[in-house]
Amino acid sequence: MSSSSELVRHQQTLYASRNPTRRWLHTSRRDWIIAAIGRTAAKRPKRALEIGPGSGVYLPVLAQHYDQVVASDLEAFYLKHAQSLTAKYRNLTFQVDDICKSKLPERSFDLVLCSEVIEHLRDSAGALAQMHRLLNPGGTLILSTPQRYSLLELAAKIAFLPGIINLVKLVYQESILETGHINLLTEREVIWQLKKAGFRVCESFKSGCYLPLIAEFLGEAGLRLEKYLDGRLRGGALEVLLWTQYYIAEA
User: Fold this and answer.
1) pLDDT value of position 1
2) What angle do the packed helices 20-41 and 219-233 form, to 10 degrees?
3) Distance between CA 194 and CA 248 in Å, rounded?
4) CA 1 to chain centroid
5) What's the whole-number mean pLDDT along residues 57-66?
6) 3-class secondary-structure state, position 108
7) Going by DSSP bridges, is the β-strand pair 200-207/109-115 parallel, antiparallel, or unpaired?
8) Count of structural domains, the chain
9) How many other β-carbons are positioned within 10 Å of the β-carbon of residue 207?
10) Of 38, 82, 155, 250, which residue is most buried, by most CB within 10 angstroms?
11) Distance between CA 22 and CA 102 in Å, rounded?
12) Around 22, how many Cα atoms within 13 Å sit in the side-chain half-sphere?
């Protein structure tokens, strides 16, 4: 089992990976979410909640856009790591909380950000219902999660087989940890769970073309091909192969 510090370092590595595809997959997702935060904050910039902040990449952005920001996580070590941010962002507080049975007060937030979390939860539908409970009427949820049948998730199942994982680590020469994804959802399943929780989906987006072997061995040339295919696949029947699905939904 990985240590808490190793998990945080691993998340930080993803945004600065020496592999162009790996770096792009994570920075492009980060950039989409940062842009979404900016768009939604313009409407109701009072209180925001991030569920599962991980290494804390979005917390400074939230703190710059919202009057008050709460970061919640079931794992206290992630919150402890991010607490150094309070030296600069005094409007940032932390709360150990399980989103599947949250003890945070209802109707407390104008924004809930939940990026790359529900795939780690068996009861994602229950978690989304709790997020709806926590939002003020008309509040916004920004959600991202991997697509079940994306090429990256399918390749990850093979990459961590005994023997193969050693080769993967040799190729990347940086932190490689198992994804811990136990609840990968299709677009239809996510939208159904959102609507069941009481949300109205306002915006959706897909991104993240990953091509096995091309990503690992063709460097920037491989990334150019993947970026081209990323745009071509989006909006068509094969967009299920793209890695990440994003939603902006209203309570």
Assistant:
1) 47
2) 40
3) 10
4) 22
5) 97
6) coil
7) unpaired
8) 1
9) 22
10) 82
11) 33
12) 21
What phi and psi, each to the nearest 5 degrees, are found at residue 107?
50, 50
- Domain CATH code at residue 96: 3.40.50.150
- The Cα-based distances of 174 to 3, 29, 115, 168, 222 in angstroms read 16, 20, 23, 10, 19
Tokens matching residue 213 = 């072997």
pTM above 0.85? yes
Q: Which residues contact 68 (CB under 8 A, 6 or more apart)?
A: 46, 47, 48, 91, 93
Q: What is the pLDDT of residue 16?
A: 86
Nearest to 55 by CA among 130, 135, 115: 115
Going by their DSSP bridges, the two strands 200-207 and 244-250 should be labelled as antiparallel
Give the residues across from 95 on adjacent strands.
72
- Positions of E strands within 9-152: 47-51, 68-73, 92-96, 109-115, 135-146
Q: Which residue has the tokens 């979390």?
A: 117
In one letter, which amino acid is 91? N
Q: Identify the CA nearest to 37 among candidates 53, 16, 59, 55.
A: 59
Query: What pLDDT was estimated at residue 7?
Result: 64
- For the CA atoms of 202, 51, 21, 201, the dihedral, rounded to the nearest 10 degrees, stands at -10
Q: Which H or E element spans position 128?
A: helix 124-134
Range of the domain at 102: 4-250
Sheet with 47-51, side-by-side order of all strands? 92-96, 68-73, 47-51, 109-115, 135-146, 244-250, 200-207
